[in-house]
Write a structure and sequence with these properties.
Elements (H helix, E strand, L loop, with lengths): L2 E5 L4 H14 L2 E8 L6 H10 L5 E5 L1 H14 L15 H15 L4 E3 L8 H12 L4 E3 L1 H4 L5 H10 L15 E4 L4 E4 L29 E8 L2 E5 L2 E2 L2 H14 L4 E7 L5 E7 L1 H15 L4 H20 L5 H10 L8 E8 L2 E8 L7 H4 L10 H11 L4
Parallel strand pairs: 1-2, 1-4, 2-3, 4-5
Antiparallel strand pairs: 6-7, 7-12, 8-9, 8-13, 9-10, 11-12, 13-14
Length: 391
């Protein structure tokens, strides 16, 4: 019997897709779930899949791989899309696509499928990843080919096939939510109109700054070769380190973003993102580089960042161009070592201390009290040289 590997979350959309694939392709559907730190009920996923007649259910724990090989390299690049978005959804899709293709090859499946909508970016991200690792494997994108045109149609289909319909905290059909160890995004419903404020109940991993503790929280993040390795002196594996920073940032109201973004396919969309731990890492990493890297290296990284972030957003994680830019990002990462102490208070993050053995920052040269190590007579020639560039 033909086999299809479906990226399956256990939720409404992918449950409907699972049933639809069975009906339209007369194939065995293998339910594949990548555990990258999202809120998930493994028993429920297995139960829902079995209820739909699935015999093979695969749940892979990829949390540490996700943080170490995807999140950390992106943090080293200080990737931010359109000034605010830390790319939490974007960075997860390449890993899922890669592993899903590996499963498809293992079980000799003729096709893979995903639940990304026909208007979103994820369909591009998944399918570019599929093509990179399995160009001969067929891709089935139900949202682009089925006759179900709306959420109403999906509800009718679900009722017809006795597929349970989840509710949000208010008892209504849920928002569109994506979450992983790095972030949570919420879209749809009341958020679709940009004039509406985001209701407080949609936030899942951050407390509102108004309700955050009245006493600040201090955290010291240690870096080695450009990657975070310790929190308050305690060494943690990447997965646990990000979990801890999420807790610290979330309880202090850090990491909320409400934005209207330009999707790759040409549509504007409004979403609310929560990235508490990622926000702390980004601020700390930039602070660490400020005292360990030279100006030329830092400015070169800043100049390529918008393109680097855009490549990730558009699904080009496995492209030659992204690989090339990553080499620039990591050129002197071995110099980025030390500790950054942060103060977290009601949604704000401030740098308290930068500690490193690097000699990139010279107290003698910068001091107002000592002038022997810096030749000021050269400054006039420097200024005269740059005056010529004005003409």
């Amino acid at each position: 019997m033909k086999k299809i590997v479906l990226a399956y979350s256990g939720g409404l959309d992918t449950s409907i897709i699972l049933k639809w694939l069975q009906e339209n392709y007369k194939a065995e559907v293998i339910a594949y779930t990548a555990d990258i730190g999202q809120e998930m009920d493994k028993k429920k996923i297995i139960k829902n899949a079995k209820k739909l007649g699935v015999k093979k259910i695969i749940i892979k724990n990829l949390k540490n791989v996700f943080v170490r090989d995807y999140v950390f390299p992106m943090i080293r690049g200080h990737a931010i899309y359109e000034g605010v978005y830390l790319l939490g959804t974007s960075i997860a899709r390449p890993l899922i696509a890669r592993d899903q293709i590996q499963v498809a090859k293992k079980f000799k499946a003729f096709a893979v499928s995903h639940g990304a909508t026909g208007k979103g970016n994820d369909q591009v991200r998944f399918e570019l990843g599929y093509h990179y690792f399995g160009p001969k494997i067929k891709v089935i994108a139900p949202w682009r080919i089925w006759k179900l045109k709306s959420r109403t149609d999906l509800m009718k289909y679900a009722k017809k096939h006795k597929i349970s319909i989840p509710k949000d905290k208010k008892g209504a059909p849920p928002f569109s939510v994506d979450d992983n160890l790095f972030h949570t995004s919420t879209e749809g419903k009341v958020l679709e109109n940009p004039k509406n404020s985001a209701p407080e109940f949609i936030f899942q991993r951050t407390i509102s700054p108004e309700k955050a503790p009245t006493k600040p929280t201090y955290v010291t993040i240690g870096f080695k070769n450009g990657d975070p390795t310790t929190i308050n002196g305690k060494r943690l594996i990447p997965e646990k380190l990000l979990e801890k920073l999420n807790q610290l940032g979330g309880k202090n109201g850090v990491g909320r973003v409400d934005l209207v973004e330009n999707r790759f396919i040409g549509i504007k969309s409004r979403g609310v993102y929560e990235t508490p731990g990622g926000t702390l890492l980004l601020i700390a990493h930039r602070a660490m580089e400020s005292v360990t890297l030279d100006k030329e290296t830092m400015h070169k990284k800043d100049s390529i960042m918008p393109r680097y972030a855009e490549l990730i957003y558009n699904g080009y994680w496995f492209s030659k161009e992204r690989f090339k830019l990553q080499k620039i990002v990591d050129l002197k990462r071995n110099k980025v070592n030390g500790n950054i102490k942060l103060k977290l208070y009601k949604g704000n993050v401030s740098i308290q201390s930068r500690m490193t053995t690097s000699s990139a920052y010279s107290m003698k040269k910068v001091s107002f009290e000592e002038n022997k190590t810096f030749n000021k007579s050269n400054v006039e020639r420097f200024i005269n040289f740059h005056k010529k560039k004005l003409k």
